[in-house]
Amino acid sequence: MTARLIDGRAHAAAIIAEAAAMAGTLGVTPTLAVLVPTDDEATDWYVRNVERTAAKVGVSVRVERAHGASGAEIAIRLDALSGSESVHGVICLTPLPSGVNLADVAAHIDPAKDVDGANPTSLGRLAAGLPAYAPATAAAVLEILERESVPLAGARVTVIGRSTVVGKPAALLLLAQHATVTVCHSRTKDLAEACRSADVLVAAVGQAGLVTADLVKPGAVVIDVGTNPTPGGGLVGDVDAGVTEVAGALTPVPGGVGSVTTALLLRHVVTAASLRG
Ligand code: NAP
Description:
Elements: E1 4-5, H1 8-23, E2 31-36, H2 41-57, E3 60-65, H3 71-83, E4 89-92, H4 102-106, H5 120-127, H6 136-147, E5 156-160, H7 167-176, E6 180-184, H8 191-196, E7 200-203, E8 221-224, E9 228-229, E10 235-236, E11 249-250, H9 257-274
The structure holds NADP nicotinamide-adenine-dinucleotide phosphate (NAP).
C-alpha cells in the first residue's frame, strides 16, 4: 500500500476562501494583535507567514514588539490588547523570556479573544464541552480529519504527545467527536502497542523518525504534527518515510498540518469579530 498524501495546502486554501467570504460580510475589519516578546528569527518568520495569510483573509494584523519585557509587563500588554475594542483576537508568541510561563501570561488574554487557545480557561472550557477556541494546531488536526471525511465516532485514535498546545487539546477535540482516544507521552511503556491498534494516529512530539512503519496499522490515517528542522534548512515531521508503505493516508511535512493551522488561526479571528459584543 502507498499512503495517499493529504493536501493540507488545498484545505488551507478552502478555509481561507471561506473565512474571507465571512470577513467580507462583517462590516468591520477583523483584527489580530500579535505580541512578540522575543527577537527570535523563527518567530519573525512565523509573523510574516501570519501576515501573508491574514492579507488573503482580510484580517488586519497589529504586531506589538515586547522584546526584553518581563512577565508582568507582558501580562499588562495582553490585558490592554484584550480590552481594546478594535482588536478581536490576541496571541502571544514564544519563546518567552526565561522564567516566564505561557499559561501565566496567557491567562491575561480575554477568552473571547483567545484565538489560539492559550489561556488555561480556554482549555478548561474545551474539557468541559463549552464553547472555546482550541489551539489552532489542535483544531487543524480535527479540521483535516473532518475535511477528509475520516469517521471518528467509535474509531480508535492514538495521540502521541500531551502538551497543552497540541496533544491534550487534540485529544479533547477527538473525544468530543466520540473517538476512543489513547494519549501517549515520553513515559508510555509500549508505544508501539498503543499505536498499532489505532485507526487514526496523531504524532505531536518533535522527534524526527519516531513513528516507524511497525507502529502503524495497515490503512490507518496518520496525522503528522511534528516539525523538525533538518541540517539542510528543511523541515521533517515525526513520521518516518517508511510509513507511506503501510498507512492509508498521511499528512506531509511541510504542506500538511502547518498550512491548515495558520488558516484556522485567521478563521478564529473572523469568528471572534463576528461574535463581538
Ligand atoms: P512539546 O511541548 O515538546 O511536547 C512533546 C510531547 O511529546 C510531550 O508530551 C512529550 O512527553 C512527548 N514525547 C517526547 N518524547 C516522546 C517519546 N519518545 N515517545 C512518546 N512521546 C514523547 O511539543 P509541542 O509543542 O506539543 O509540539 C510537538 C511537535 O509539534 C513539535 O515538533 C512542534 O514543532 C510541532 N508543532 C507544529 C505546529 C504546526 O502548526 N504544524 C504547531 C505547534 C507545534 P512528556 O509530556 O512526557 O514530556
